[in-house]
Amino acid sequence: KGCKLVGCGSAVPNLLISNDDLSKIVDTNDEWISVRTGIRNRRILSQKDSLTALAVEAAKKALEMAKVDPEEVDLVLMCTSTPEDLFGSAPQIQKALGCKNNPLAYDITAACSGFVLGLVSAACHIRGGGFKNVLVIGADALSRYVDWTDRGSCILFGDAAGAVLVQGKEKDDACDSEEDGLFAFDLHSDGGGQRHLNAGMKEKETDHEIGTNGSLLGQLPKGSSYSCIQMNGKEVFRFAVRVVPQSIELALEKAGLTGSSIDWLLLHQANQRILDAVATRLQLPSERVISNLANYGNTSAASIPLALDEAVRSGKVKPGHTIATAGFGAGLTWGSAIIRW
Ligand code: ACO
């Protein structure tokens, strides 16, 4: 079976925070942020807004573009590290969309690599599991885990949701190998680098008032939550510019392609300097690099489908175009996929 990318959509929160706004809460300025990162604005979910609702909005737009009824969706993959329910939010998205035809829905947690993993998982489910219409959603609200007093990290992140509908096709009818939507991929992780980027659980508190010291109740956790994002920016930067070109080159080789046959380079939008460094390594001119960092910052698992959606709707990415895409981030995780729109 082949698979095709047949629709995309995205949604961002209304609240816009500029670099100047941030300079009122931490010691920073527009020039430093834009020169070092390329970021000028980001959208942030306010306290009362829901990330799940944003994901539903993006998914609806992808279904509309694909002209596919929600009832035809048989798998929803929600790629997120910031679910609004610890047990996962994909089933709630499935319900809100009205996917009723015995669908499966689950979450994938892989930080900023989540969407690439979701795309590859969709293709595997189609090829090996007989699924037909798979919604891959990337959505994150890292602003909820940002330390707003840490100028080294709080300037980077924004919130968003993006979605792509991947459809199974019989090879002999609508999809021969020339048209297949996913040529090749390359995925990795390295838990050894977790110290450079993480948001671990806060130290468990125990309730010593209820249990006497040493009693069973005294030893039980009281409940938990996560710490703010801890990041060593320099190490993450070095990691990204080292592994991403390698991964894309491997995926291109598997696909029997070279850098010059790519129409677009669409990387996880983390930092303009990372995008530029990877493009230089792959000898791709800047005109072939998709970037919307200036408007949204790093939106984690949402950044690739958000940028893809904008590029498709503006007519930049056209049917038949080949795109090298790569995600990288916490875990550490990274991976690339060579896709065709
Ligand atoms: N405004 C002004 N000055 C700042 C700011 C700021 N916002 N942040 C740091 N500085 C200062 C530092 O204190 C330092 O000052 P000093 O020289 O007096 O000590 C100086 O600027 C340089 O700081 P560096 O941290 O060395 O700056 P760098 O050039 O490395 O840029 C950045 C920092 C932008 C964070 C960069 O390292 C980066 O983008 N790294 C990648 C991060 C990333 O992509 N993370 C997300 C991964 S995705 C995921 O999975 C969540």
From TrEMBL:
GO aspect biological process, one term: fatty acid biosynthetic process
UniProt KW Lipid metabolism keyword: yes
Pathway: Lipid metabolism; fatty acid biosynthesis
Catalysed reaction, written as an equation: malonyl-[ACP] + acetyl-CoA + H(+) = 3-oxobutanoyl-[ACP] + CO2 + CoA
Top EC class for this record: transferase
Key words of the record: Fatty acid biosynthesis, Fatty acid metabolism, Lipid biosynthesis, Lipid metabolism, Transferase
Enzyme Commission code: 2.3.1.180
Keyword Ubl conjugation carried by entry: no
Gene Ontology molecular-function annotations: beta-ketoacyl-acyl-carrier-protein synthase III activity
Domain Beta-ketoacyl-[acyl-carrier-protein] synthase III N-terminal residue range list: 106-191
Domain Beta-ketoacyl-[acyl-carrier-protein] synthase III C-terminal as annotated: residue spans: 252-341
Family: Belongs to the thiolase-like superfamily. FabH family.
UniProt function note: Catalyzes the condensation reaction of fatty acid synthesis by the addition to an acyl acceptor of two carbons from malonyl-ACP. KAS III catalyzes the first condensation reaction which initiates fatty acid synthesis and may therefore play a role in governing the total rate of fatty acid production. Possesses both acetoacetyl-ACP synthase and acetyl transacylase activities.
Full protein name: beta-ketoacyl-[acyl-carrier-protein] synthase III
Species classification: Eukaryota, Viridiplantae, Streptophyta, Embryophyta, Tracheophyta
Residues of the full protein shown: 65 to 405 of 406
